[in-house]
Amino acid sequence: MTVFKATNADMTCTMGEGTFQYRLGVAAAADRSKCGRTGLHACEYILDCTGYYSLGGGNRFFLAEARGDIAEDGQDTRIACTELTLVQELTNREMAAHAMLYMVRHPKRAGWEAKGEHLEAAADRAEAMLPDAIAIARGARPVARGAAGAHLGLVRETDGEIVDARLVTVGRDGIRPGTWYTVEGGTVKEAVILEGPAAASIERLEEVCR
Questions:
Q1: 198: pLDDT strictly greater than 60
Q2: Is the Cβ–Cβ distance between 92 and 134 less than 8 Å?
Q3: Backbone φ, ψ for residue 172 (5° rounding)
Q4: 49 — phi, psi (to 5°)?
Q5: What pTM value is reported for the model?
Q6: Residues 86-123 as b or e (16 or more Cβ within 10 Å = b)
Q7: Are β-strands 151-158 and 134-146 bridged in parallel, bridged antiparallel, or unpaired?
Q8: Using one digit for the tens of pLDDT, what is the confidence trace for 131-143?
Q9: How large is the greatest C-alpha to C-alpha distance in the chain, in angstroms?
Q10: Distance between CA atoms of 135 and 119, rounded to whole angstroms?
């Protein structure tokens, strides 16, 4: 089973009975697996890992393979297993890509939103105002913006189905810092976002027209 694992900067994790040291490409083993108690823990959705190890705090994130006895408890997408191998360390851009791929593969699943100092995955609008931070906006007309070096995910959804998903990095390919972007027809475009009195006036007009 392909999963994702977060660790401290030194690739250690706290277990029920102490601290466990992971090594890239080396299978770790446990005698039993029970979520939150025993076994080796990981998540099916990478952004769930940030609820245990925050993004941007020196923690590390890995693509992993879970084997053996696999247990779930319904708390986010975490699992516990008896064998876990860290396959590849991920950059923040790769993390954003894996998060978006999860949404595309499981469009009906709830719980995809996430929030942190270096992360925002939210309905309709998201921002990443720090370098290398992640912002993923998902909705009928998703919009996102960020600082130079931030990664913007735009996931367009229609009637509960994902119809488009694009990932860009601010500062590359003409994507400008502090500018709102959306995705239309498979193309990332600048978006006009009205705020303040103008936005309120338009919202009232739209209500009248409904």
A1: no
A2: yes
A3: -115, 150
A4: -60, -30
A5: 0.88
A6: beeebebbbbbbbbbebbeeeeeeeebebebebbbbbe
A7: parallel
A8: 999 999 999 999 9
A9: 63
A10: 6
